Amino acid sequence: MDTPDPVLQRQLPLIAKIISDETWLEGERRGQPVAHKDPVVQDKVCLVVLAMGQEMRQQVMREMAAERQSRVGTLEEPPARRDVAA
């Protein structure tokens, strides 16, 4: 199985929020609840993600770089040792 893109993994909660917001907005426009799989909602979500995608990716990459930078010079705990009986 392929390892998912770590940047995309961090973007998924934001994309879920966009889906939620667009679903709610379309429900408000129609005056009744709509499903997140509604074609109008899906089109709006795609437009938002396409418009903001590059900016979202760059923001996540900056955050990841800052996290890596903050760990420079710190030691991570070694993995737990497993005693193997001979």
Describe the protein.
This protein has 86 residues and is mainly alpha-helical. The protein is elongated. It has two helices and no strands. Helix content is 67%, strand content 0%.
* Main β-sheet description: none
Query: How many β-strand stretches?
Result: 0
| Relative helix content | 55-70%
**In the residues, how many domains can be counted?**
1
Which stretches of 5+ consecutive residues score pLDDT under 50?
none
Oligomer: single chain
Q: How far apart are the termini? A: 34 Å
The arrangement of helices and strands along the chain is HH
Helical run tally:
2
- Structural class from helices and strands? mainly alpha
**What value does the average pLDDT take?**
86
Radius of gyration, in Å, reads 20 Å
**How much beta, percentage-wise?**
under 5%
Bulk shape: elongated
Features:
mainly alpha; elongated
What is this structure's SSE topology?
Layout: H1 6-30, H2 39-71
